[in-house]
Task: inverse folding
């Protein structure tokens, strides 16, 4: 019997993939930073029983139609907006993601991004590096306090709740808006559920942690920024397309809001000459929410375990359920 064929779309640590090498012929795109070009991915998908994919690979109908042997897609991310999951399910292809193991790491980064934006950490570090520091000044690089302020979390799921837990250490008031009530966050962390409008109007920090769906696409737009306080800071660690970036840029230029911390963008990588990136009150990061060594290795391991399970006839640990 021929072994299954697995294609991995980015260079990953082989140690975490050991189990797959025992049961399959495994091929890996050799580059860490350069993505596998679409035409090569389509060619590989035609033969593949399993694909280990990145969030930057579009696993759409065209690709799935070519992939006549495909049984499993293991996405190296909790988000799966890059995959047409309904179409995959209709074709009997199992899709898996990497929830839970990245929750704390992503919440740490999100809170760090919030602190960096509010307290102008990147600007301040550049100030020293660029030899601009001439003397101590009463309002030199003064930012906004974080402690005892109000944080409004849109998307109180796993990462949202882990972020709320961090906010309690800063004695913040926690508001949230979610598809349904999160009683654990209410009872343990004192979070208060409210409408999106109330959250936008009253929060000092508005943080988006929803998945990207038809409902959340451009949820943050001109109207939402107009509702926010002029001192508010917007943080996005979910997906770029939940924001209308032109509206965000205008809100920042018109001083409708005070700043933004962005880990994700509509088009990634965002170019350095994008108007948003040039603003001094924007902290822009290259989608590093889950990027700790420990977490990224665990994510690869979980992808491998999921793929191993499906290819050996077992139920994977973290299968994406189509709603
Ligand atoms: N920046 C980064 O590197 C990372 C980004 N992410 C993003 O964070 C997202 C959330 O991850 P988890 O917390 O693990 O997922 P989760 O599924 O536990 O939480 C998402 C929450 O959003 C809520 N939600 C969905 N649609 C909504 C809407 N229209 N309005 C209000 N709330 C809504 C859901 O009810 C759920 O509670 C991922 O889907 C991914 O896009 C995740 C990990 C790392
Ligand atoms: O897991 C995700 O959805 C990410 O964006 C990266 O970890």
Result:
């Amino acid at each position: 019997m021929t072994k299954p064929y697995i294609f991995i779309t980015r260079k990953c640590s082989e140690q975490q993939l050991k189990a797959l090498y025992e049961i399959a012929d495994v091929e890996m795109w050799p580059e860490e930073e350069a993505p596998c070009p679409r035409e090569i991915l389509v060619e590989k998908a035609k033969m593949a029983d399993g694909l280990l994919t990145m969030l930057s690979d579009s696993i759409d109908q065209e690709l799935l139609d070519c992939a006549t042997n495909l049984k499993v897609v293991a996405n190296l991310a909790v988000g799966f907006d890059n995959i047409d999951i309904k179409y995959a399910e209709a074709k009997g292809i199992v899709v898996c993601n990497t929830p839970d193991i990245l929750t704390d790491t992503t919440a740490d980064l999100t809170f760090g991004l919030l602190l960096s934006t509010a307290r102008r950490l990147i600007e301040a570090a550049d100030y020293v590096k660029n030899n601009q520091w001439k003397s101590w000044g009463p309002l030199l690089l003064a930012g906004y306090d974080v402690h005892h302020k109000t944080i409004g979390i849109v998307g109180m799921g796993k990462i949202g709740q882990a972020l709320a837990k961090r906010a309690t250490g800063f004695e913040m008031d926690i508001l949230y808006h979610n598809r349904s009530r999160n009683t654990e966050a209410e009872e343990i962390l004192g979070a208060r559920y409210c409408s999106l409008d109330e959250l936008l109007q009253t929060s000092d920090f508005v943080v988006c942690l929803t998945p990207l769906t038809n409902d959340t696409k451009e949820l943050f737009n001109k109207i939402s920024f107009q509702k926010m306080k002029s001192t508010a800071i917007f943080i996005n660690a979910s997906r770029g397309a939940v924001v209308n970036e032109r509206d965000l840029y205008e809100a920042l230029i018109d001083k409708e809001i005070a700043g933004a911390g962005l880990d994700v963008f509509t088009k990634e990588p965002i170019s350095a000459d994008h108007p948003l990136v040039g603003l001094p009150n924007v902290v822009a990061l290259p989608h590093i929410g889950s990027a700790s060594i420990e977490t990224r290795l665990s994510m690869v391991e979980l992808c491998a375990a999921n793929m191993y399970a499906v290819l050996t006839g077992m139920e994977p640990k973290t299968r994406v359920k189509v709603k």
Notes: The first helix runs from residue 18 to 23. The CA atoms of residues 115 and 275 lie 22 Å apart. The chain has a mean pLDDT of 98.
